[in-house]
Amino acid sequence: MNDGICTKRYARHFLIETETGQDGYLLYRRRSSQDGGFTANISFRRLELSVDKTWIVPYCPLLTKIFNAHIKIEYCNSVNSIKYVCKYVNKGSSMAVFELTSGENDLNEIYQYQMGRYIKSNEAVWRTLNFPIHERHPTLIHLSVR
Description:
By secondary structure, this protein is an alpha+beta fold. It is 18% helix and 18% strand. The N and C termini lie far apart (52 Å).
């Protein structure tokens, strides 16, 4: 939230048809109760709340069933979305700068600083047990060009 306004664009407005917004994001159809939409009554922390489609996150029922998890899915067709994807695909690994010291009390004027890649415990175990990091199947696909 910024100044009492949700930065994720909630609560969304009711729409009869799906439209493309000026920023390239889709504005999904959200029907009001007058247009055939639903309203649910939810008990939350001893409060009775009435929730309609303006507060529901877009999701794909097929992916939810396949992966047995909630997956937020939205279509965006702006330049910023491509920039966002490329930023994280090309993002490097976590790095750390550390110092090696001995147990002696005398101070050395020269410290050994090294820069190394930080690996989390789950990745360290995965690499120690020699599990594959990535796979490509098939390695080559022939495409016919006409």
